[in-house]
Design brief:
The protein is of the alpha/beta class. It contains 17 helices and 29 strands. About 50% of the residues are buried.
Length: about 675
């Protein structure tokens, strides 16, 4: 990839005639589109009949795009196997948790673990990479499209066999599995791995271990599929490889991106939930640290299908989205899609052009993004995202645990996004980091909503604390083993041992009338909670009313040069929000965080670091305008004028870049 900012769109030239394609090339150049993504749904065009390959159309398209100054992210077409693959072969298809076998059509209808799918996917990927891998216009590859977006764990016979192999590799003997899962409960005891079922329909609930392990098995197998495709492409192309993923899909993103070259995500969050948009940038830049991520799909106006539609973005919001993405570490900002589809199930979806070639309601906003891209490109390319001092650990494996044991239908995505919003609203620069990420450079670490913490993670977090960091753990963290069972030595297992803070009991505090007080604020308490014995640590938060009156729900203890803070319960309601803000504020001050501003709600500051200077990108996201206090004299990089210390007003969806020289 060239050293530039990419502004792109998904394009499906196989759907259009020569006249339309020629028109598209002309309009792309006028609009400022400098990259397109093609091919992810075109298997039947590339291989119309089994073993009859023809990539000439796409080779010519890539060459024509390149001649017009437009580069290509080439996709493997594996999410849509053709009719010759599926017809008469139900054994190759995805089977859902109710035992329903998918038919041909839509996408992701085949099982990605079936040996024939793997064989044909490898072959089409190899032939495509041979044909396009050496073309100068191909600057990147995308594997498949949105793994596990519409489907999740497959229950076909192939997956059952692979499931048993996976269990055998993980546990070694069936006795080890029985012991780890506690299968004497309800006579679930197995005599061989072949007897272990998939979590298919049952009269009540499956064993927690079986349900969670099957999700982890599914996540590992889809990452394996991605690794297979990437290895094939690398034989014929040096262009970097990615996948367009999401925290909403049934994947382990940390594992998925481990062997890929850069990370990408798709998001269609609306302005009302702009934090759900921003959280992706703060997480995705940490899947491949030091390498720009891409926004591979977002709508220029609204998302829609035959069954539903969202509201169009207000004018100006798309520019704010793009500014935030680029400032927070994105190298590409791309739309789904370029030209509205005239057929299929996504005809109503927002696009840059209509199916008849006219500008859409979002077109003017796309032009604004291009104007912004050209203006900020030199600034972005000469800086990098500033190292955050506060980190929140994100875990897709925790997503699996909470899917099995959801308490009151809690979802990891909602829990972590709401937690993130609090820190975002307080103007603190933050990273979301995967479980295996380095903790170097951080001062304050939050680990919420992760039922199982690995020994490796606890060891690294303990070292982080001993070196001076503050580690805030919980709620809903550490109470389960790696097999999704309850600890038998302590309530929180190794976490409790390391913290030195004793847990008396755990139970759901919702609707118990429990009131806690901490940081000069009283609030109701809820969620599945841990209650701490007073005196085993410094009792920061005490339960004033309820079943555990007089006991602690927040406790801290020093270790080395830092401390561990155990957050046992979730403060609720408006009072709970104030308490959590006070908690974050207290420990941010104690950790001496420097990357923090008093930016108003709805506006963000994205700091970037240059050689001897720092740049603040100040972006209004909610359309209401805002303000931020400038700490010392800076330079407005758009007007090249001095900005004096004090309050700086930011207009509706405005983006300012202020440079501060460092002493």
């Amino acid at each position: 990839m060239e050293n530039k900012l990419y502004h792109g769109a998904a394009y499906y030239p196989e759907l259009w005639d020569e006249k339309v394609i020629e028109e598209d090339l002309k309009l792309m150049k006028q609009t400022g589109i400098n990259v397109v993504r093609i091919g992810e749904f075109a298997w039947s065009t590339m291989e119309p009949e089994e073993d009859i390959f023809d990539f000439s159309f796409f080779v010519k398209i890539i060459e024509r795009l390149y001649e017009n100054g437009i580069e290509t992210v080439m996709c493997t077409p594996t999410p849509t196997p053709p009719i010759w693959f599926t017809h008469g072969h139900p054994e190759r298809m995805y089977v859902d948790s109710d035992g329903k076998v998918m038919g041909h059509g839509s996408r992701q209808h085949a099982c990605t673990n079936h040996p024939y799918l793997r064989e044909r996917a490898a072959l089409i990927t190899e032939q495509l990479a041979k044909a396009a891998g050496g073309l100068p216009g191909v600057i990147g590859w995308q594997l498949d499209n949105e793994f596990k977006c519409h489907v999740n764990q497959c229950m076909c016979e192939t997956c059952k066999e692979l499931w048993h192999e996976w269990l055998r590799k993980r546990y070694g003997t069936i006795e080890n599995l029985n012991d780890a899962w506690g299968t004497k409960i309800w006579s679930e005891y197995y005599l061989s791995f072949e007897q272990v079922p998939q979590p298919e329909p049952a009269p009540f609930l499956h064993n927690s271990s079986l349900s969670t392990m099957y999700q982890l098995f599914s996540m590992e197998k889809i990452a394996e599929f991605a690794d297979e495709q990437a290895a094939i492409i690398r034989k014929f192309s040096a262009a970097p490889i990615t996948h367009n993923s999401s925290i909403a899909f049934g994947v382990d993103n940390e594992k998925l991106f481990n062997n890929l070259d850069f990370a990408s995500f798709d998001t269609y969050a609306s302005i009302d939930d702009y934090a759900a948009y921003l959280i992706n940038s703060d997480l995705w830049r940490n899947f491949k640290p030091g390498t720009p991520f891409w926004v591979m799909e977002t709508s220029p106006s609204y998302a829609a299908s035959l069954k539903s539609y969202a509201s169009p973005h207000p004018n100006g919001y798309l520019k704010a989205e793009a500014a935030a993405a680029y400032a927070l570490g994105s190298g590409g900002f791309c739309y789904w899609l370029w030209r509205q589809q005239r057929a299929g199930c996504e005809q109503p979806h927002g696009s840059v052009l209509s199916a008849w070639g006219k500008p859409t309601v979002g077109y003017a906003n796309v032009l604004e993004v291009e104007e912004l891209r050209k203006k900020i490109e030199p600034i972005i390319l000469s800086t990098k995202p500033a190292q955050a001092e506060l980190a929140i650990t994100y875990s897709d494996r925790a997503k699996a645990f909470l899917e099995t044991e959801s308490h009151r239908k809690l979802k990891h995505r909602g829990l972590i996004t709401d937690f993130y919003k609090r820190i975002l609203s307080m103007g603190i620069h933050r990273d979301l980091i995967p479980e295996g990420a380095s903790l170097e450079g951080y001062k304050l670490l939050f680990t919420p909503f992760i039922p199982y913490l690995s020994e490796d993670y606890i060891t690294r977090a303990k070292k982080f604390v001993e070196n001076g960091g503050i580690w805030i753990v919980g709620p809903l963290t550490g109470g389960r083993t790696e097999h999704h069972t309850v600890h038998t030595d302590r309530a929180l297992g190794q976490l409790e041992e390391v913290s030195g803070i004793e847990v008396l009991y755990t139970y759901p505090m919702d609707d118990t009338g429990s009131i806690g007080r901490a940081f000069d604020q009283s609030a109701p308490l809820g969620l599945w909670s841990s209650v701490f014995e007073t005196g085993t640590g410094h009792d920061v938060g005490v339960i004033e009313e309820g079943l555990s009156q007089g006991k602690a729900f927040i406790s801290e203890k020093s270790h080395g040069f830092g401390k561990i803070v155990m957050l046992g319960s979730m403060p609720l309601g408006e009072a709970g929000e104030l308490m959590l803000q006070n908690l974050i504020d207290h420990y941010s001050n104690e950790a001496d965080l420097s990357l923090r501003t008093d930016v108003s709600s709805g506006t963000i500051v994205a700091p970037r670091q240059g050689e001897g200077y720092r740049v603040w990108f100040i972006i209004n996201m909610d359309g209401n305008g805002g303000s931020v206090t400038i700490p010392h004299q800076g330079i407005d990089l758009e007007t090249n004028s001095l900005v004096e210390p004090g309050k700086l007003e930011i207009g509706r969806f405005e983006c300012k870049s202020i440079r501060f020289n460092e002493n």
